[in-house]
Design goal:
Chains A, B: It holds the Pfam family ADH_N_2. Two copies of one chain form a homodimer. Chain A has helices at about 135-150, 165-175, 190-200, 210-220, 235-240, 270-275, 290-305, 320-330; strands at about 1-5, 20-25, 35-45, 75-80, 90-95, 100-105, 120, 155-160, 180-185, 205, 225-230, 245-250, 280, 310-315, 335-340, 345-350. Chain A has about 350 residues and is of the alpha/beta class. Chain A has two domains: about 1-130 and about 310-350, Alpha-Beta Complex (Quinone Oxidoreductase, Chain A, domain 1); about 135-285, NAD(P)-binding Rossmann-like Domain (Rossmann fold).
């Protein structure tokens, strides 16, 4: 028997544990070409919120059907039984059937989201769960956003919002590694300390401590060239104000809007895109899977060299996935939010 | 003696003739390196509104000082007296000291706005005033917007808003010439007829005749790939809804917002840029003066071949420049709005 977390109601506003149910299901034997995986870690991502609604935004992955297992959530685990070439019991793999403890996965079948096709992982590079963050979808989003969507150029001053989050903390560090002046923002003084002391950013601020344009001006008196956006709303508006000529915005998400009951107001100063010649580009990491080998090579090396830190917020126990998501969306977590499926406690973990 | 139109008050909302005054000034003799020009045509552009305020938007040309001549407005004229090499009486030239009947211009001095540096025009290619529209800044804006900012690709379906306007009518025609399916929108049924019958667009609609998303869906049932934006506001929002994956927006202006007393609301659906991987690029034609020779070559040929039509709304008399601007901003005019400085009547003119 196995357990799965299934949505039973679409949240209104904040995600609540009662919107989900953990159900017991029979785990069937793998057929030819399939592998049975015991999941050990599963990913918790803000963007899941976009699928927890009647209709997901056009162009995005479809809404999670109520009462069904959630497909397209990255997870890592250990192969228990294999009837597929190239996979053997004991292999560490990733796939996209998360939020459950056992999964039967078809080898070679393209996963929803691209990154999660059943793949053997090299645990000599990093512990398995890092493949859900820096070496997985989050790393790809940060990498594709900075180096492709934003087209980072030498000397660019970069602002990363939600910089203590799973993607933001990677984008901020990658920009630092490439020699940029990097400003980070987050929603608590503790996170700001993390940005300055742990990640070594050049400046950081708590966006709750004043008016965003003022805080940003203080952190970047001469303006910015690139804004890596994970927040939207007032953050994007402040960025448009601070961007210099030919500046660029890479938007990977708009967490400030995910739970909005009313359609949000967009930035009121978009005309600055015209006068300053700005480029605003939305993107999804999953649209850049061709960059995965390149990203993995770079990020793997940066981790080995101790230049890129993978901070994790670990929540133990499969049944805690919904509150983990709620906490992430509330801004409680630092770094990558992970559920350790067999664990029983809640702690933070820094892999340096 | 000469006459100049000078702003004496910044308009609140709509531009009024009483915000300007025509003053008589003494025309001085040109010094060494200067040329005296009798202006014959002067340009009327929506974007002038951005400079008729206390502070122009950051990154844009500075506000027009009250009580001073307006600098940086394209004009064509005839050299009356020259003390500069390369210019002789009778030459047709353009420069950027418009909204006056005589101007003393320094040869070689970079004009505010780039395009308007004193230049001799080849009137065998087109009549002088066409250099204020299709062969000038408007042509450059349309050309740079489509082929650079929007990165037009084979097969793209293109929506041009304000498509009966100076820039829009050129962008729409250029996209047609390059073989695209082109949808145009405008603010009157008469303009829609012009778009369909004169410019031969594939579809066109009057945005006042229904809800924009519906009108756009009817005109482009399978969506659009490129939106050439001159309007902003609800038009941009509708475009984000209709754009297909990897779609692009080139914004050259946001005429719907120029006279706004409150900061406008931006598009509430910017998150679609993320899910659909959209690129939104603001740009100014004047930031692309390096494309001027290339644009002039193409557009000159298209005019000669009868493939690109230059519709003009001509207002006669220098003193009529302010009402001409007010009319343009109200949506009264089709094609390029021009003031014929020595004229006395008001008529429309189509150069095919």
């Amino acid at each position: 028997m196995g357990r799965e977390v299934r949505p039973i109601a679409y949240p209104r506003g904040e995600v609540r544990a009662s919107d989900f149910r953990v159900v017991e299901v029979e785990v069937r034997q793998p057929r030819a070409g399939e592998v049975l995986v015991r999941n050990t870690w599963t990913s918790v991502d803000a963007a899941l919120r976009l699928r927890l609604r009647q209709t997901a935004p056009p162009g995005y992955f479809p809404a999670f059907p109520l009462g069904e297992p959630m497909d397209g959530i990255m997870t890592v685990g250990e192969v228990v039984e294999s009837r597929a070439d190239g996979f053997a019991p004991g292999d560490t793999v990733w796939h996209a059937a998360g939020w459950r403890d056992y999964a039967v996965v078809e080898a070679g079948k393209q996963a929803l989201g691209g990154v999660g096709t059943l793949t053997k992982l090299d645990v000599r590079v990093a512990p398995p769960q890092v493949y859900l963050g820096a070496l997985g979808g989050n790393g790809l989003t940060a990498y594709a956003g900075l180096f492709h969507a934003a087209g980072l150029r030498d000397g660019d001053v970069v602002w990363v919002s939600a910089a203590a989050g799973a993607v933001g903390s990677l984008a901020a560090q990658m920009a630092k590694i490439r020699g940029h002046r990097v400003i980070g923002s987050a929603g608590s003084d503790e996170k700001v300390r993390y940005l300055l002391e742990e990640l070594g950013l050049d400046a950081a601020f708590n966006y709750k401590r004043g008016a965003l344009p003022d805080l940003l001006r203080e952190a970047a008196p001469d303006g910015i060239d690139v804004y890596f956006d994970n927040v939207g709303g007032d953050h994007l508006e402040a960025a448009l104000g601070a961007l210099r000529g030919s500046g660029r915005v890479a938007i990977c998400g708009m967490i400030s809007e995910y739970a909005a009951k009313e359609p949000p107001h967009g930035p009121g100063n978009l005309m600055l895109a015209v006068t300053k010649g700005l480029t605003i580009r939305g993107f999804r990491g999953s649209a850049h899977t061709h960059l995965l080998p390149e990203m993995t090579r770079h990020v793997g090396a940066w981790i080995r060299e101790g230049r890129l830190r993978c901070h994790e917020t670990i929540i133990d126990g499969l049944s805690q996935a919904p509150p983990a998501l709620a906490g992430l969306l509330r801004g409680d977590n630092t770094g990558k939010t992970l559920v350790r499926i067999d664990g029983f406690t809640h702690r933070e973990n820094a892999i340096d």
